[in-house]
Amino acid sequence: MAEASDIEWCDSTFNPWVGCTRISEACDYCYAADWAKRTGQEDLWQGNRRRTKTWNEPRKWDRQADTFEEEHGRPRRVFCASLADIFDNQIPTLWRDDFWGLIRECDRLVFLLLTKRPMNIEKMLPAFWDEIKSRVWLGTTCEHQEAADRNVPHLLKHDAAVRFVSYEPALGPVKFTPWLHDDGCRDTPSAGSCYCGFEEFRIDWIVAGGESGPNARPAHPDWFRSVRDQCAAAGIPFLFKQWGEWMPVATIGPGPRLKIKDHRYLDGGTVVRWVGKKYAGRLLDGVLHDAYPEPR
Ligand code: SF4
Question: Please, are residues 282 and 148 in contact by the beta-carbon 8 Å criterion?
């Protein structure tokens, strides 16, 4: 839990519980599992879960809402479960019921829920979802096309203040275009009609980034350029969160002495080098992409 979060797109983080299970390629180098290992809590990724004692923090932020909104001109955004997954099957129903109750209680806060299990959203939303949905941003991770095809249709079944995709860690190219238009799919990959089946709902926001950490896999810069351009064509806000540890050689300008650990040759003659997340930064072709959606 952190009052001031390091995650670029939220103000604070709150973990109602910790622990999870790896379920996709995006989980291979899960930083939360690494954290659990470092702190001697490996059991949290081997079936156990632990409820935290930080539940009063959101209540405190809710009481401070006037001050926060005066300063920022909008409500505080709280990212929930950075060390877990809200829609995890192994969480006791009572814990999740309490969590939904907390969102209902803290009605001056906006909650961001990012899941790799969007297929569980339907059965795990509370009966009073309509009451709280205008303050919840629901998101799913899509690391490559297969994950997008699997996850986005589940996400788009549900109304929420914002429906978003985290394209991080990017592990392959993704064509999001069919899910970026309000008026049905203009781009029909399979003959005839939209394959998402939820034409009235679209993705409202895409956050993209490369992988970080000691085992980070490189992303091709063209994957990010493509998603940037898909968002621009559809008028969807795009936030480029980070390169991660790798960045393309042409992007590395003069600067401090680099600790170059490795380099890789990618398709099309692109070369990326391991320069470290901090140095790599978050400019894509020299531009900061930092757009946020307007909640519905
Ligand atoms: S879903 Fe998230 S927290 Fe769970 S193992 Fe995967 S990356 Fe880690």
Answer: no
